[in-house]
Every structure is written in C-alpha cells, then in structure tokens.
C-alpha cells in the first residue's frame, strides 16, 4: 500500500514504458518526485505534445509533425534513391552510420500474415504508386535479416522490378571486428559462399 | 538527425528518468508513439498531477498529497512504535514484507556532513519534538547498513535515549537462503559473533 494514491497512479502509468516493471517504475517515480520535479514536468509536456501532434509523413510514413517530414522535403537529398526500412529507429541508425543521401520509405513493420499484417498495412500500395512515378531508379531494401524481413524483401524486390526499378539489398557477411569462431553458422556459411576475389 | 523535432524533444525529456540513456529513451519514444499513445497520454497526465500535488506528510515526511498521509492518519496503527527509515521505498519494502503496524518517520536521506546533509535536513528537530511528546515508546531504527546509515542510526539512538524512548535496530546476519561461501566477510563475522543458543 502506498501512502499516496497519486504516487501509485504515477507508478502504474510509468509501466507503459517498454522494459519498465513495477520496481523500476517505483524507482523512477521516487527519483522524479525527490530530485527532478522540473524534469518530470518537462517530460509530461513533451509527452502530451508529441502524442497529440506527431503523425506520419505522407511521403515516407516516418514520424513527423508536419505533413511531409524534413528529410522528404529536403532539396539536398537524392530523389532517385529510396531505402525501404522496417522502423524509424532503422532510419536513425542508417543516418548516423552511413553517408546515405537518398530518401526513405518506412514500412512500420514487416509482412506477417499470421499477425494480419499484409502489403496494405505496410503501405505497399503507396510504395508501388511512388515507384511507378519513375523518379526512383534504385530501391535499397534494408529490412532486417530475419525470416519475415527476408520475405518482405522478396516481395519488395518483385514490386520494384514490376515498376522497372533496380532493387538492391544490404550485404550480408562477417561483422567488422568479429571473430570467425563466434560468428553464427548461417552468417559464416553465407560469408563463405559469397566470398569475393581480392583485387591485386 | 531526427525527422521530427517534437520526437527529438520527447527523447531528450525521457532521459531525465534514472537509468535511461539515449538508446532506451529512443526505444521508449518510438514504442509510445507506435503502439501506446493512450498510455503516453495517461503517463503525461499522471506526471503533471503528481509533480503538482504530491508533497510531504507533515507528520512522517513521506510523500503525500494530503497534509497528513494515510498511514499517519490511520486509527488502526500502533502509535507507540515509530520506525525511522531513509526513503519512501524502504517504507514500501517494510510494509510488503513484514506485519509491522506502527508508524514511520522518513528521513529522506542520511547524515552526510560532506554533502551538507545534517540533522536539520533530515528533520531530526521534528523527530526530537515528536519523541519528547511521550506517545512513542520504541524507535525502530531501520537505516541502511552502510557507513553513513550506521552513523545516522547512532545519532538517532542518542536522540531516542535523551527522550526516554527505547531505540532498537534491525538484526544483522546471514540472509535467508544465502550460502556461507558467498556471504561477504563483514556479514559472516557479524553473524558468527552474534550467534545465539538454539532453544531445546
């Protein structure tokens, strides 16, 4: 029993965060009330504003508070390259790690018929229409290398070919800095089979 | 670079939670926006309400949105027993694990002269006044078994004796279900020295 119903309500509400159980929620609530009430207020306002205003970009389906997101609206991005990814977090990872200057299309999921997620849920009708416009010349398929991700990639490649767009896929192989001994068998077999000649 | 400034603001605000770095904050923000906008709104409201309304109980210094908290106001608690603890989380732990039916006094910290935390910051003047009233007959000192906690316990015990109140301390020894081999030396030495005869 907590001495304060409002505190109990806050602890319960914090549990909607992923990876936060009752113990962490309790620690967070105490921390905010004891040491960072200002941060708590800021978080409350940021949450309300984001939930209310952040929707999806009409063009790439990424999160955006404007109809078209900053990247899609940017004049400095190469419009002939389109990279299909599963989630907004993947976009952030690619933007941080690579020098990619093209555009994105965020599927917000992957094909998973058992969960009722088909081409329509991923906005693939929208993607097909966009590919048909002729502006895109290469569709870089960057879905995750899982079974469902591979199935989605296969579907996307067909979609691209139908529209006369070149589909491409991220390279698979040994991770940099990894050791052969600790790499999983599937990856090792793939890397072995896809070995390339060393240019002289 | 995030496609949405509001999203970036939310990720930054989430970092005020203890144990949440930029990666977790990002995951939390995406989760809330993708799958649980309702939970996000609930959390926002609960945070704002708690930060605004939850203060400290006049009697025990625990969190409370009323001047006197539910436990201190309860007629069914034994008013002769007072348990001094460092934080509200400790009260929750004692309430959950034990059948204690007395009252609490939350120090909201421990004596730590180097950090500028003296008797006044812990409300010990208030505690002394309460002990002097004569209602309390035993002060159960449940500070943590750390150096600072022990120093605080020593100070509290003196305070109790001055007011003619019996001070008591939680037992130290082997944790239940622990193994001798893995218990730290200090605890083992203490448990060995404080061994008790097995009643026949």
SSE map:
2 copies of one chain form a homodimer.
Chain A: H1 5-14, H2 22-35, H3 37-53, E1 55-56, E2 63-64, H4 70-73, E3 81-85, H5 88-97, E4 103-106, H6 124-132, E5 138-141, H7 147-162, E6 166-169, H8 185-193
Parallel strand pairs in A: 3-4, 3-5, 5-6
Antiparallel strand pairs in A: 1-2
Helix pairs in contact in A: 1-2, 2-3
Give a quick set of tags describing it.
8 helices; 10% strand; two-stranded antiparallel sheet; 6 strands; alpha/beta; Recombination protein RecR (chains A, B); DNA damage (chains A, B); 200 residues; Helicase, Ruva Protein, domain 3; homodimer; DNA recombination (chains A, B); 2 domains
Explain what this protein looks like in three dimensions.
The structure is a homodimer of 200-residue chains. Chain A has a 4-stranded parallel beta sheet. Chain A has a two-stranded antiparallel ribbon with strand order 1-2. In chain A, 32% of the residues are buried. Chain A contains 8 helices and 6 strands. The longest helix of chain A is centred in the N-terminal third of the chain and has 17 residues, at 37-53. In chain A, strand 3 (81-85), helix 5 (88-97) and strand 4 (103-106) form a beta-alpha-beta unit. Chain A is of the alpha/beta class and 200 residues long. Helix content of chain A is 44%, strand content 10%. The first copy, chain A, is globular and about 70 Å long. The first copy, chain A, has 2 domains: 5-53, Helicase, Ruva Protein, domain 3 (Orthogonal Bundle), CATH 1.10.8.420; 63-169, Dna Topoisomerase Vi A Subunit, Chain: A, domain 2 (3-Layer(aba) Sandwich), CATH 3.40.1360. The first copy, chain A, has helices spanning 5-14, 22-35, 37-53, 70-73, 88-97, 124-132, 147-162, 185-193; strands spanning 55-56, 63-64, 81-85, 103-106, 138-141, 166-169. The model of chain A has no long low-confidence stretch (mean pLDDT 89). Chain A starts with a helix and ends in a 7-residue tail after the last helix. At the A-B interface, helix 1, helix 2, helix 3, strand 2 and helix 5 of A face helix 1, helix 2, helix 3, strand 2 and helix 5 of B.
């Amino acid at each position: 029993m907590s001495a304060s119903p409002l505190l109990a309500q806050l602890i319960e509400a914090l549990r909607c965060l992923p990876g936060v159980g009752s113990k962490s929620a309790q620690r967070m609530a105490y921390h905010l009330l004891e040491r960072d009430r200002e941060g708590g207020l800021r978080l409350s306002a940021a949450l309300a504003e984001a939930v209310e205003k952040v929707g999806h970009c009409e063009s790439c389906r990424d999160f955006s508070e404007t109809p078209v997101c900053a990247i899609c609206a940017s004049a400095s991005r190469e419009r002939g390259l389109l990279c299909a990814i599963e989630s907004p977090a993947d976009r952030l990872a690619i933007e941080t790690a690579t020098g990619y200057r093209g555009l994105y299309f965020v599927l917000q999921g992957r094909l998973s018929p058992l969960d009722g997620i088909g081409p329509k849920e991923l906005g693939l009708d929208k993607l097909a229409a966009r590919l048909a416009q002729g502006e895109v010349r290469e569709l870089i398929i960057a879905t995750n290398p899982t079974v469902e991700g591979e199935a989605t990639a296969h579907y996307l490649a067909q979609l691209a070919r139908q529209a006369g767009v070149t589909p491409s896929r991220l390279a698979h192989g040994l991770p940099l800095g990894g050791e052969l001994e600790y790499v999983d068998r599937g990856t090792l077999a793939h890397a072995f089979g896809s070995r390339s000649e060393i240019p002289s």
